[in-house]
Amino acid sequence: MAETVWSTDTGEAVYRSRDPVRNLRLRVHLQRITSSNFLHYQPAAELGKDLIDLATFRPQPTASGHRPEEDEEEEIVIGWQEKLFSQFEVDLYQNETACQSPLDYQYRQEILKLENSGGKKNRRIFTYTDSDRYTNLEEAWL
């Protein structure tokens, strides 16, 4: 049984579930907003509902009918403690001398495998996990 609690003051929400946290999935969608993009506000259908439908922020077709360039937006589904490498990490771990721990070597192997297989690269969306050395900001500034 899941329960959702909304806070209208801050725009944040708490979602409670009895499912194991490893089942958590988040869909993240980033889109560059420019003066050529239009936001079409669609009022909520229910009275008293002061939320904006997420469809409001979807890219609108241009006059010629095509969507914004692919590099203008990125969408991905992320699982709990799933590692997505930043460009900094990709550059760092390609250099074997930067590896200091078994986890660093594991990340190096994963990055090399992704590079060799032509796997999908994320551009702006990346994650840190509990075991990353960059999770603690004091350690990130060595």
From TrEMBL:
Compartment(s) of residence: Cytoplasm, Cytoskeleton, Cilium basal body
Cellular compartments per GO CC: cilium
UniProt keyword list: Cell projection, Cilium biogenesis/degradation, Cytoplasm, Cytoskeleton
One BP annotation, GO: cell projection organization
Predominant place of localization: cytoplasm
Transmembrane segments: none
Protein name as catalogued: MKS transition zone complex subunit 1
Origin organism lineage: Eukaryota, Metazoa, Chordata, Craniata, Vertebrata
Gene designation per UniProt: MKS1
